[in-house]
Amino acid sequence: MSGLRIRRMNFMDVDAVVKVEQETFTTPWSRAAFEAETSDNELAYYLVVDDSGTIAGYAGMWLIIDEAHVTNIAMSAAYRGAGLGEKLVRALMELARERGAVSMTLEVRVSNEKAQSLYAKLGFVPRGKRRNYYTDNREDALIMWCEL
User: How many other CB atoms are found less than 10 A from the CB of residue 63?
Assistant: First the structure.
């Protein structure tokens, strides 16, 4: 992991990002969705963790006026537990600040206590729930917010 860096995602990263997405989520986004995010969505900003050409993970957000809404965060199984998820979220938060966001929000499964703990460490606090949010099992999502 000596060649590790966090950078903006580009169109050439889509195949690798889709692979990470598919290994992470039970209802992954499609390749077409990521293509649209990188080429057509002016509100979208995505970062990748690049390990000497291998995409280890990614995170994305939409910037709407002064709010950042996190769309996805995923790390390849081989890279989990190394603190890269935290670095990636911190980088996303910094990018949001640079682009004028004053707050950031995300949804997380109510059962995903590990992710909730990371977000709390970074200043996110629970502000509500979205009932039956996840289509694979109708699990609720915890809505978390932080001030940037």
Answer: 18
The helix/strand/coil state of 92 is helix
Q: Is 107 a catalytic residue?
A: yes
Among residues 72, 2, 7, 89, the alpha carbon closest in space to that of 37 is found at 72
Of 23, 107, 133, 139, the catalytic one is 107
CA-to-CA distance for 123 and 11, rounded, in angstroms? 31
The predicted-structure confidence for 72-131, as pLDDT tens digits, reads as follows 999 999 999 999 999 999 999 999 999 999 999 999 999 999 999 999 999 999 999 999
Annotated catalytic residue within 45, 58, 79, 119: 119
Residue 119 known to be catalytic? yes
- Cα 64 off chain centre by: 16
Token pair listed for 28? 């992954």
Query: Model pTM greater than 0.70?
Result: yes
Residue 66: strand, helix, or coil: coil
**Which residue matches tokens 């000497």?**
52
Q: Tell me how far apart the alpha carbons of residues 106 and 11 are, in angstroms, rounded to a whole number.
A: 24
Q: Specify the DSSP element, H or E, that contains 37.
A: helix 31-39
d(CA 62, CA 71): 7
